[in-house]
Structure of Aminotransferase class I/II-fold pyridoxal phosphate-dependent enzyme:
Amino acid sequence: MKIENNQLLPQYLMYKEEYLKKVEEVLESGWYVLGNEVKNFEQEFAEYNGAKYCVGVASGLDALILAFEALHLNPGDEVIAPANTYIASIMGFTRNGLVPKFVEPDEYYNMDATKIEEVIGPKTKAICVVHLYGQIANMPEIMKIANKYNLKVVEDCAQSHGASINGKKCGTWGDVGCFSFYPTKNLGGFGDGGAIITNNKEIDDEIRMMRNYGSKKTYYFEKVGYNSRLDELQAGLLRVKLQHLDELTDDRRNDALRYLNELKNPKIKLPKLKFGEAGHVFHLFVVEVENRNAFIQYCEKNEISLKIHYPQPPHLSDAYKYLGYHRGDFPVTENMADHIITLPLYNGMLSDEVKYVIDKLNCF
Ligand SMILES: Cc1ncc(COP(=O)(O)O)c(C=O)c1O
């Protein structure tokens, strides 16, 4: 049996009729940018998350760039961010001239809230929280610190659509929540897309204007903006998928819980849940193994496809060489990067396929 790490076709086929109907509806409408589909998606996504406002943009990275721009911090100000994350989380604010202060992860792979205060200095103005792999970070503790030091909070929810603590969804704890709808994401479109959610009207107004050349009124421009609009086709297709998001999340969670309950190999360190099942939407199922090369070879032999999210932490990337960090600066993160491995998990994965992976991995 060959097991893919991820596949997008099965979940398209699940709702194929609805998608095709929506495509036809949008194409026949004769209106393709900033129309009713975007407007309705924004309303529905805000409501789904329990936020007042939502603005659709062109990608998750744009959502982060626009969110930080709307906070009006000064170049050189510092932003506390997880050392262990996808590099786009960091690019969102460094593009605004802001400087990262990295914090090592806790045992749940998210920023360790107990280590945040150590890096707060006079230039610290914000925290960029990432809910990595689908698990919500320790928002109650992070918000306590943010409030104590008067820091803005941007949540990177690109991997965590719908993850919550006591019913309060990610993206609604801080000032702004940023989402990606890249096709592999839990709420993935059929191309690029992103959104921000907020309860702050000024932030909503500003991002709404900036995504459209800095214009509120057609052909009148208040600021030098961007072209970063979610298009009608993506918005329409995302509306279809949003209606099924909770069942898609349950489907992922069921497979993930089977891995958690049935993988019984001491050589494979399983992820832990910090805030119960609701706190994790299992965008990725990441485990740790001591001898990763041997594990990869074993899985290759058994036709189980693996990925590494991510092999190189941002502070060691060429992109951030200018910050002057070296190997050894963030040992917890670096050790994770050397041992993590992502098991197959996607919507539409068959029960027999999950069982095959479990059986094979228990024999490693
Ligand atoms: C944590 C995180 N932040 C930001 C992004 C950027 O999203 P996008 O690819 O839509 O720009 C991604 C995904 O690619 C991500 O995983």
The CA atoms of residues 308 and 341 lie 5 Å apart.
